[in-house]
Automatic annotation (TrEMBL):
Residue spans of biased composition, Basic and acidic residues class: 212-236, 245-260
Signal peptide: none
Region (Disordered): 197-260
PANTHER family xrefs: HSP70-HSP90 ORGANIZING PROTEIN 3 (PTHR22904:SF533), TPR REPEAT CONTAINING PROTEIN (PTHR22904)
GO molecular function: Hsp90 protein binding
Entry keywords, A to Z: Cytoplasm, Repeat, TPR repeat
Protein name as catalogued: Hsp70-Hsp90 organizing 3-like
SUPFAM superfamilies: TPR-like
Annotated InterPro entries: STI1/HOP_DP, TPR-like_helical_dom_sf, TPR_2, TPR_rpt
GO cellular component, one term: cytoplasm
Species per Swiss-Prot/TrEMBL record: Olea europaea subsp. europaea
Compartments where found: Cytoplasm
Main location group: cytoplasm
Keyword Repeat: yes
Length: 548
């Protein structure tokens, strides 16, 4: 029951139904509270819902139950990362790598945890960075430009220079707090409202009448009163084009190129799509979706090596940029699809399967899981095709025949089995192995091989002989009679089939005359009670009322 609940949880997890997965894993844990895998799976489900405290608790239980299982430390590290306990995450991943030094997910997790720890330490170095977090990050210019109160400030070179300095060194914030424009910008970046006061709001001394008094220079009667004018300031120079503004424009243009590429892809204009995705990549190399989109086009065009190259670059660049794990999984999945398309032998599927598995460690997507299952199935089928050799199959069957004549039935079965692997479509190998199983008293196995023989060649009389013989030894005389009669339709003069019919009729007549021994009668009654039709009659409510 615990395995059933676990299987349901795994299915729900693969479908992205994490709440359902948690419910099933909890049910399984209640049935098998010492199974470390169940806690590990539930921890993963909690992490997917960003419920990192519960994920941490389950991960700790996992390593407590199975301290030598590396995956438990991977769960522990992921939970600690979610809680932003980067020191704990580093320790967990390192402990896992002590157990399994070649574990790629642990290596990747450790690299992420160490990078996050370094970034966190750097952020804590200054009060400004710790107070205002990512206020001066890459989105700063977009937010300032989109707010009407700060849009005009971006035309002032000294303000732009001040913000550029804060991007590089957030600790310098205290140097600029006296600037009212900085308070205005912080209000936008932090979504706060500061009480700022511009020069026009400065307090003016009042006269006794309560009205503001303007002071003018003293003037004599003979001297005309001159208007008080403040000295004019030198005109401010025209703002130079801003480097970051250009970068923003390039990103916007790159998105436009992507949209045009998407439209071309939908119209199956693949060459045009490639051109626009390439332009987008040239304009902005920090968005790996351009690479994954171009890889998808290459995949559809059959340019599998180009597709793989783009996917590898996307994964490498995504690691550097700490891109969304779903984007990383998408790149790996497309690479796996290209590798499957290129596969020519069973071994060629191995790198594809490994790539799909890596994609699932980034993001457990049902589509990727299906591709993995399909690749594993295709690999198995290819292995069977590569193993197929009718000539060797005939040789193995002949070896089996020799052992059969020597009454060495287990050895005969071994060679007949090899013959079947080499040529699964040969009914003779199944027929001969059925005869061996019958000699050894393994009647169910013999019946299964005889039925497979008939399935492969319905006109092969020997298959009906094998099946009828097994049924006769199982005391199922009516079924055996039907089997022999079916075989006679294909070979009316077959002596083995005719003898089989005769033996079955004798046994059936013997039973109808009551000539059975007490042991035979008892055995026949037991056989009858096992018949599905008899069982249906026995369980019928109406019939039970008649009997009782």
């Amino acid at each position: 029951m615990a395995d059933d609940a676990k299987a349901k949880g795994n299915s729900a997890f693969a479908a992205g139904k994490f709440d359902d997965a948690i419910q099933h894993f909890t049910e399984a844990i209640n049935l098998a509270p010492t199974n470390h895998v169940l806690y590990s799976n539930r921890s993963a489900a909690y992490s997917s819902l960003k419920r990192f405290s519960e994920a941490l608790s389950d991960a700790q239980k996992t390593v407590e139950l199975k301290p030598d299982w590396s995956k438990g430390y991977s769960r522990l590290g992921a939970a600690q990362m979610g809680l932003q306990n980067y020191t704990g995450a580093v320790a967990a991943y390192k402990k896992g790598l002590e157990i399994d030094p070649n574990n790629e997910p642990l290596k990747s997790g450790l690299a992420d945890a160490e990078a996050a720890l370094a970034q966190s330490s750097k952020s804590r170095a200054g009060q400004g960075a710790s107070l205002f977090g990512d206020a001066f990050g890459s989105e700063m210019w977009v937010r300032l430009a989109s707010d009407p109160t700060t849009r005009g400030l971006l035309q002032q070179p000294d303000f732009v220079k001040m913000m550029q300095d804060l991007q590089k060194s957030p600790n310098n914030l205290n140097l600029y707090l006296k600037d009212q424009r900085m308070m205005q910008a912080l209000g936008v970046l932090l979504n706060l409202k500061f009480q700022t006061r511009g020069p026009e709001d400065a307090e003016v001394p009042e006269t006794s009448s309560g009205s503001p008094e303007r002071k003018r220079p003293a003037a004599t009667e003979t001297e005309p009163v001159k208007e008080d004018k403040r000295p004019e300031k030198d005109p401010e120079p025209e703002p130079e084009p801003m480097e970051l503004s250009e970068e923003k424009q390039r990103k916007v243009q790159a998105q436009k190129e992507k949209e045009v590429g998407n439209a071309a892809y939908k119209k199956k204009d693949l060459e045009t799509a490639i051109q626009h995705y390439t332009k987008a990549i040239e304009l902005d190399d920090e968005d790996i979706s351009f690479l994954t989109n171009r890889a998808a086009v290459y995949l559809e065009m059959g340019k599998y090596e180009d597709c793989i190259k783009d996917c590898d670059i996307a994964v490498e660049r995504g690691r550097e940029l700490r891109s969304d794990f779903k984007m990383m999984a998408r790149a790996l999945t497309r690479k796996g699809s290209a590798l499957v398309k290129m596969a020519k032998c069973s071994k060629d599927y191995e790198p594809a399967i490994e790539t799909f598995q890596k994609a699932l460690t980034e993001h457990r997507n049902p589509d990727t899981l299906k591709k993995l299952n399909d690749a594993e199935k295709a690999k198995k089928e290819k292995e069977q095709q590569e193993y197929f050799d009718p000539r060797i199959a005939d040789e193995e069957r002949e070896k089996g025949n020799q052992y059969f004549k020597e009454q060495k039935y287990p050895d005969a079965i071994k060679h007949y089995t090899e013959a079947i692997k080499r040529n699964p479509k040969d009914p003779k190998a199944y027929s001969n192995r059925a005869a061996c199983y019958t000699k050894l008293g393994a009647l169910p196995e013999g019946l299964r091989d005889a039925e497979k023989c008939i399935e492969l060649d319905s006109a092969f009389a020997k298959g009906y002989t094998r099946k009828g013989t097994v049924q006769f030894f199982m005391k199922e005389y009516e079924k055996a009679l039907k089997t022999y009669q079916e075989g006679l339709k294909h070979d009316p003069q077959n002596q083995e089939l005719l003898d089989g019919v005769r033996r079955c009729v004798e046994q059936i007549n013997k039973a109808s005359r009551g000539d059975l021994t007490p042991e035979e009668l008892k055995e026949r009654q037991a056989k009858g009670m096992q018949d599905p039709e008899i069982q249906n009659i026995l369980t019928d409510p109406v019939m039970r009322q008649v009997w009782y």
